[in-house]
Write the structure tokens for this entry.
Amino acid sequence: MEVKIAEVIGFCFGVKRAIEIALKAIKEGEEVYTIGPLIHNIEVIKELEKKGIKIANSIEEIKGEKIIIRAHGVPPNFYEEAKKLEKKLYDGTCPYVKLVQNLAKKLFKEGYEVIIIGKKEHPEIKGVMGYIENKGIVISSPKEVKNLNIKNKRIGVVVQTTFREDLFKKIINEILSKSFETKIFNTRCPDTRLRQEKTIELAKESDLMIIVGGKDSSNTRRLFEISKKYSKFAYHIERPEEIKREWFKGVKKVGIAGGSSTPREIVLKVKEIIENIDKG
Ligand code: F3S
């Protein structure tokens, strides 16, 4: 059995940066808090908790002074609220997410009807919506464009950093076929573009794909969707222990890819386990 790893694995730039910011804050002393997990990886979260990075569900719940903003970003009223409550913020918002926020705000100010291509319930999108007074239209499929009344409007488009390339293009084509004036910012981040591209390449040449990463991780789920599309079999696992021997019966080529918050070592461990299964 041939086992190959995708060319891009390990933490992305934004995840690395957010962890560094959190660790820097912790070095200065007391406990620090994040609203929701800092990244979508249980093992890493456990390690960070041991170091004093705690998870809260809301700002009111936080007893300590220091709050880390996750790479996904937050709406602007979060900064105001933190100031009112005299909290000290450490901003881990990924610069690529910041760009989406700023561009959406710019479009909104210029009078465009803002369409955000992405998942409504994702924290990144909730944050971006805050920059346009929650007046944007969030869509994630081409068929949703059909119901939009955008015929004679000036439309401004931004896209979730981790969105799928193929789906993005289909949605844009639908919008262009209906709208009068459209300004599009392709705000998919460089890491997402490369990781998805390399996963497609690998999935095309593999019989079976293993995608390693959090079940809640949006970018990991996109890699899994891509893998299902291009490879005969695909499995999404969070931990190496989830691998099952029977998956590999009759399989000749296995590809492994990991999400942007999956540590490199976990992907390498998965490879080692699969190679051991092959050796019997
Ligand atoms: Fe940033 Fe892209 Fe990672 S937006 S957090 S570099 S997946």
The CA atoms of residues 75 and 126 lie 7 Å apart. The mean pLDDT is 95. The pocket of FE3-S4 cluster is lined by residues 12-15, 71, 94, 96-97, 161-162, 189, 191-192, 219, 260 (CB under 6 Å). DSSP finds ten helices and twelve strands in the chain.
